[in-house]
Amino acid sequence: MRQVTATGSTVEEAVQSALAQLETTEDQVEVNIIDQGKKGLFGLFGSRPVVVEVTAKPGAIESAKQFLQGIVQNMGIEAEMDIVEKDGRNVMFNISGEKMGLLIGKRGQTLNALQYLTQLVANRHSSHYVRVILNPEDYRDRRKETLVRLAERLASKATQIGEPVSLEPMPNYERKIIHTILAENEDVETISEGEEPNRYVVIQPK
């Protein structure tokens, strides 16, 4: 938590001094007036400056990290997090440690639910949309390989039986993998149905 104490002849002057030290803007901080100050005799004798304590509000990524760390600790998991930020809108939490299987859950269901909640927290503290990806022990790369094989297998099934095939609910970026993999398949087409966070892909024969 970034916090500074600053002084000035007025509250505004003290706050502006604190903002300059924190290199931020007034809408991104909380201000606590420690001392209202006092004007001395003739503006000189017995005067006392205004004192303010200014605390920077946690940003989107910091808030998401704090939330995630709290959940992981409550699950009894010791983990280290390496945050990779791309253009301020895409953030990946590379997580390492023991009990990663517990964090991932069956077919990644626990991980996807936690990722959804972490993303909600991040966007509650952001002025623009932030996409959060949780990646314990490179799970996302392994999951992508699984999704590629799944997409190809179910596309073949849809073609053979001549009926649409629905996949399990997936987060947006996993659905995008399915759509991308099958985009060049001349025998099937894909659509997404349902509402978040239970939106899923349907593979249907052309």
TrEMBL record:
<dbReference type="GO" id="GO:0009252">
    <property type="term" value="P:peptidoglycan biosynthetic process"/>
</dbReference>
<dbReference type="GO" id="GO:0003723">
    <property type="term" value="F:RNA binding"/>
</dbReference>
<comment type="similarity">
    <text>Belongs to the KhpB RNA-binding protein family.</text>
</comment>
<dbReference type="InterPro" id="IPR039247">
    <property type="entry name" value="KhpB"/>
</dbReference>
<dbReference type="Pfam" id="PF14804">
    <property type="entry name" value="Jag_N"/>
</dbReference>
<keyword id="KW-0694">RNA-binding</keyword>
<keyword id="KW-0961">Cell wall biogenesis/degradation</keyword>
<dbReference type="InterPro" id="IPR032782">
    <property type="entry name" value="KhpB_N"/>
</dbReference>
<feature type="region of interest" description="Jag_N domain">
    <location>
        <begin position="5"/>
        <end position="55"/>
    </location>
</feature>
<dbReference type="GO" id="GO:0008360">
    <property type="term" value="P:regulation of cell shape"/>
</dbReference>
<dbReference type="Pfam" id="PF13083">
    <property type="entry name" value="KH_KhpA-B"/>
</dbReference>
<keyword id="KW-0133">Cell shape</keyword>
<dbReference type="InterPro" id="IPR015946">
    <property type="entry name" value="KH_dom-like_a/b"/>
</dbReference>
<dbReference type="InterPro" id="IPR038247">
    <property type="entry name" value="Jag_N_dom_sf"/>
</dbReference>
<protein>
    <recommendedName>
        <fullName>RNA-binding protein KhpB</fullName>
    </recommendedName>
</protein>
<comment type="subunit">
    <text>Forms a complex with KhpA.</text>
</comment>
<dbReference type="InterPro" id="IPR001374">
    <property type="entry name" value="R3H_dom"/>
</dbReference>
<comment type="function">
    <text>A probable RNA chaperone. Forms a complex with KhpA which binds to cellular RNA and controls its expression. Plays a role in peptidoglycan (PG) homeostasis and cell length regulation.</text>
</comment>
<feature type="domain" description="R3H">
    <location>
        <begin position="141"/>
        <end position="206"/>
    </location>
</feature>
<dbReference type="InterPro" id="IPR038008">
    <property type="entry name" value="Jag_KH"/>
</dbReference>
<keyword id="KW-0963">Cytoplasm</keyword>
<dbReference type="InterPro" id="IPR034079">
    <property type="entry name" value="R3H_KhpB"/>
</dbReference>
<dbReference type="GO" id="GO:0005737">
    <property type="term" value="C:cytoplasm"/>
</dbReference>
<dbReference type="GO" id="GO:0071555">
    <property type="term" value="P:cell wall organization"/>
</dbReference>
<dbReference type="Pfam" id="PF01424">
    <property type="entry name" value="R3H"/>
</dbReference>
<dbReference type="InterPro" id="IPR036867">
    <property type="entry name" value="R3H_dom_sf"/>
</dbReference>
<keyword id="KW-0143">Chaperone</keyword>
